[in-house]
Specification:
alpha+beta; two-stranded antiparallel ribbon; 4 strands
């Protein structure tokens, strides 16, 4: 069985599921990866607008820790793209995953 990771949007939990509900598969792509920005603030503003960041505490955490300090060398221009970044054993999930993965 191929397992996929499903984000449970109402509670923000991430779980593994062998067969995700079709509604979830249609909702997630609508919001995911639309929150890219050219700066940390622009990315966070979009994450907030699309409901990925739902509390001011979570928003402040995102603002306090700029993703550009953690991206693999040579990928700095992608720091505020809402997509995963990987180099070797280093993997950073897309910012929307961190937003969804934090229970509200």
């Amino acid at each position: 069985t191929n397992w996929v990771v499903v984000v449970d949007i109402p509670c923000g939990a991430i779980r593994a599921s062998p067969k995700p509900h079709p509604i979830l598969l249609s909702i997630i792509p609508m919001m995911a990866w639309r929150s890219s920005g050219s700066t940390n603030d622009e990315m966070i503003n979009k994450l907030r607008r699309f409901g990925v960041i739902s509390t001011s505490t979570l928003e402040q955490g995102f603002r306090n820790v700029d993703r550009r300090f953690f991206v693999p060398k040579g990928q700095e221009d992608m720091a505020h793209a809402d997509q995963p970044l990987k180099e070797g054993n280093i993997h950073l999930s897309a910012p929307h995953i961190y937003g969804y993965g934090t229970c509200r």
